[in-house]
Structure formats: structure tokens, C-alpha cells
Amino acid sequence: MHSSHAAGDRDFGAGVLSDFAYQSNWLGQPNVSVDQLGHAITGTKHPTARSLLFLRRARAYAALGERSLCYRDLSEAETALSLQSVDAAPNWCSWMSPADLAVDSGQCLLDLGRVDDASAKMREGLSLLPKARDKTRSIFLTYQAKGLLQSHDVEHALAVTEEALELARRIGAERCVAQVRELAPAFKPYRQVDGVDDFIEKLHAA
Asked: What angle do CA 179, 121, 93 make, to 5 degrees?
């Protein structure tokens, strides 16, 4: 942050703040994330960067249960991503795509209890994701499995989680493996479903 400020590189500074905010959300501090992203949004004008920042703030608002603010930021993220720019997107957000927007929008809807709408958004995002982004696909599949469990579609959730685990292992993405492993407690109420017990053991051993 100090270096970006000294260099007058507001876009890079916004990216650093965005990463801080993303970590805050993962650490269960969405209120901190909202504050950090508010500062980051004022620090960049590139539409792709703004789309990602609005999307991440929407995730934080969803975690806080702030429906109207979440929906507002999802709309802002969609609008920004649709805009064309003569300049290339900053490196820290150059990967941002409609697939990311769709899946993270689905995660917002899931956090807000709109399970069916969330599932549809996640399917849309997965269908748009190119094969070159298999690490992201593993993460997205984990999100999808969480939504399927919330809608009690256990067999489908089991299949999707298996796919996420196998993909994460194949590409050697340890963080993705750990994220899949975190689904184990959500499967425990469904031990009577064929295959769940064995899969829980597999997750613990992963």
C-alpha cells in the first residue's frame, strides 16, 4: 500500500485493498471488508476493477444479511463489467469474467437464503468458465455443492464435491483441497445416504 501510494498508482492500491478485504471476509469480518472495499472503489476507475470490487463488497453485504445493499452492488458489478475500456484491465483483476460474476452472485444469493436462484447462477457461471481455469472451477464446484446441500439435494452434492476434490488433487491445489474438506460437517446429517459415510472419511483423509 505504501509503495502504491508513493508511486501514485491508485489502481494497484485498490487491488491491494481488495485483497485485504477478501481476507477479511474469509476470516468472518465482513464489516471490515465492506469498509476496505469502500475505500478501494474510490481508488480506481477501470470498469473491470470496479466490477470485481463491487462484487466482493456484495459478498460482504450478503454475509451481513444486508439484502438491498448486496443487490445494489451486484447490479453495479454487472453494469461495470459490461462497459468497454480502451485500457487493459489492471493485472490484479484481468481474470475477472462473466463466469466469476455469475458464481459469486450465486454465492451471495445462497448466503441470503435464495437457494434455487443461487444454484441457477452457479450453474451458469460454471458453464462459462474455460478449462484453463481449473483451479477456479474447483472452488466454484465447492460453492455449488454447498448450495445443493442447503437444498437437501445430497446425492447431487456428493457427486459435485467428488468432482471438486478430484480436480483439486489433480492440479495440486492444496487450498482448494482444504476448502473441499471443510464441507465434511455439512454432510454429517446425511450419513444414511449411500456413499456419504465413505466420502466423509475420504474428506478427512484428503
From this structure: 65
pLDDT digits (tens, 9 = 90+) for 48-97: 999 999 999 999 999 999 999 999 999 999 999 999 898 999 989 999 99
> What would the grid cell of residue 146 be?
454447498
Retrieve residue 80's grid coordinates: 461495470
Best CA proximity match to 121, nearest among 96, 100, 95: 100
The span from the CA of 60 to the CA of 141, in Å, is: 20
Domain 1-96 has CATH 1.10.10: no
CB of 167 closer than 8 Å to CB of 141 = yes
CATH of span 97-206: 1.25.40.10
pTM score, whole prediction: 0.84
Please count the residues of the chain: 206
Q: How far is CA 26 from the centre of its chain?
A: 10
Letter for the amino acid at 144? Q
The answer to whether the CB of 65 falls within 8 A of the CB of 35 is no
